[in-house]
Amino acid sequence: MKKLFLTVLSVIIFSAMEVVGQCNADALSNQCIPKLAAGFNFLKSYKIEKGGKDYVEYSYVFTKGTQYMINICAATQPTDGIVVSLYDSNRNKVASSKVNGQFISAIAYPCNTTGIYYIQYTFDGSTGYCGGSALGFKR
Amino acid sequence: MRIVVLGVLVALMTACGSEKKTDEQAFLEGLDSAKTGGPSISEGVIGDVLQRIPAPLEISVLLKESGKKYNGSYLNSPDNTSKYNSNYKKALNLGVYGTDLGYTNIYEQNNDGVKYMGSIKSLADGLNIGQFFDIETIGRLATNSKNLDSLLLITTQNFNSINHYLQTQDRSNLSVLFLTGGWLEALHILCEVAAANPTNKELQETIGEQKIILENIMLLLSFYKDTDPNMAALLTDVEELKKAFDKVKVSYTYKESTFEIVDGVMVIKDNSSSTIEITPEDVNTIKSITSGIRNKVIS
pTM for this one? Predict the structure, then answer.
């Protein structure tokens, strides 16, 4: 009986520890909103949490003549190894925020072609695998 | 000791079962045909398509930035809320009024904006999502044009929260209707402005580009066509619009992009290009069909 009690107790304690150490991607994505550059109107916030796949992906229809900004926020360092890549509707890569080993925390994309774009977040040396991101636009 | 262990196990089991819906929720969801059956595809897939539909606010900003004047007669009357008795109509017109509010906000027409806030709050309450529309804060921000950025931000956040909540409650059908209504109203305003400026190519092209969004709206409605007669009828109407958009030719040439780093931001230079072929006749047909569908929605 004592064994069973200890087992149940450890499950509760470990569950509680997991909750404490959980990724708060909501808070991080909210932190990203005011970090959009001046003149950009907020559109969406995205949670970046590593799940079953190696990447986290969202999509959005970008419009020709509009400039978009996507930024990244993480708990440690500017991006904690999170990289955002943008792909067009044919899955051609349009941009990646890692360049020459440097992690850039925001990309601005003046769109020339209306269509579905895929916003993909990957992890390159990340420690927390957790972050947030915001998408904004301006004409 | 046995009692303590049992108590802990019961507590754990109860916590795991917290997703069960209350009787009140189940009753409210059963009130109209907008919840007659599940979609033919997973909620996750629907969520993926839903979140890519662009905000109608982008069109309002385009109109303002291109120097077009405000015209309140393009919008649905804020006094029409009493006509919308079913969840189907409420959700569609919540989207319509959301676009109208964005339009009044962008043009800083605060008096009109306040009326739309009231209409939105009324419909949102009717759908049991009124708690996500912070009318007090929005109303306060709307009284001063210096607050425009904050007003746009909080309004967008409120609508994003509504969409997110509906999806987590397995009520994505209402999200689909909300976004469809919002897009339809934006297209209607765009068509009206284009008709008033018949030589403006940019506006005509922007109408042509809506073809891509229409395809995604149709995809979303198609998920419910076998389970919801209202959404099936709306899809049939929208299919007529698709026929008009089929005449619009969109071509795209991909060329690798380049970039530079400016103040810590990677600024992309998009070297790809696209062309939209749309005639004034196409625009007229699209305007006429859009107007017909919208009239059904707002009546």
Answer: 0.86
**Nearest of B12, B9, B16 to residue A4 by alpha carbon:** B9
DSSP letters of A102-122? EEPSEEEEE-SS-EEEEEEEE
Structure tokens given for A13? 């304690």
Least CA distance to B4: which residue of chain A?
Answer: A5
Element (H, E) at B81: none
Residue A10 pLDDT exceeds 60: no
Burial class of residue A86 (count of CB atoms within 10 Å of its CB; 0-12, 13-18, 19+):
buried
Instruction: Name which of B54, B57, B268 is nearest A109 (Cβ-Cβ).
Output: B268
Q: What's the gap in Å between the CA of A127 and the closest CA on chain B?
A: 23
A29-71, pLDDT tens digit by residue? 999 999 999 999 999 999 999 988 999 999 999 999 999 999 9
Alpha carbon distance A36, A108 (integer Å): 10
Give me B103's structure tokens.
């339009």
Q: Is residue B159 pLDDT above 50, yes or no?
A: yes
The 8-class DSSP code of residue A126 comes to -
Query: Could you tell me if the ipTM is greater than 0.90?
Result: no
- Give CA–CA dist A128/B55, Å, rounded: 31
